[in-house]
Amino acid sequence: MTEDQRRNPKIMVGIAGGLIAVIALFLVYQWMIASNAENSAQPQAEPVPVQAAAPAETAAPPAAPSEASTSVAPKLVEDNIIDTPVPEESSLAKEEIAKLDDIQTQLNEQENTLKAQHADADQLIKLKEEQIKTLEAQMAAQQ
User: Fold this and answer.
1) Helix (H, G, I), strand (E, B) or coil at 8
2) How far apart are CA 99 and CA 83, in angstroms?
3) Average pLDDT per run of 10 along the chain, which is 143 residues long?
4) Among 6, 18, 47, 108, which one is most buried in terms of CB atoms within 10 A?
């Protein structure tokens, strides 16, 4: 390579662009592999719930169906929770009970949050009604 070829900006831009393209392809490849690994791991990690704890979960979600349906939240309880068999090994059953307890805790927290939001909304409605009444009284007094 001559001195002119080494300092040619077109060659340098081409080399830099090629390196960037190779790195971008490598990163996309890694991202695709990672997303495929997550998708294939999800069916294996799906818990088998215990039937004894199922009635507690089925009773909690109907507490606030209107607010829960409007927000975008992950689904904590699956529909087929009652039909799944109980694990025969006690360690698996304990793990499932722990998972279900965690889900129940999350549902209780969500219920408390929704109740607090409902109470706040009621308070705001009352304050707005009072504000409207005072504005109407001021308008009546001006006329």
Assistant:
1) coil
2) 17
3) 74 91 93 78 49 44 46 66 74 85 93 95 95 94 90
4) 47
Q: For the chain, how are helix, strand and coil distributed in percent, rounded to 5?
A: 80, 0, 20
DSSP secondary structure letters along 60-106: SGGGSHHHHHHS-----S-GGGTTSPPPSSHHHHHHHHHHHHHHHHH
Task: Give the separation between CA 98 and CA 130, rounded to whole angstroms.
Answer: 48
Neighbours of 64 (CB within 10 A): 16
Handedness of CA 32, 36, 42, 44 (dihedral sign): negative
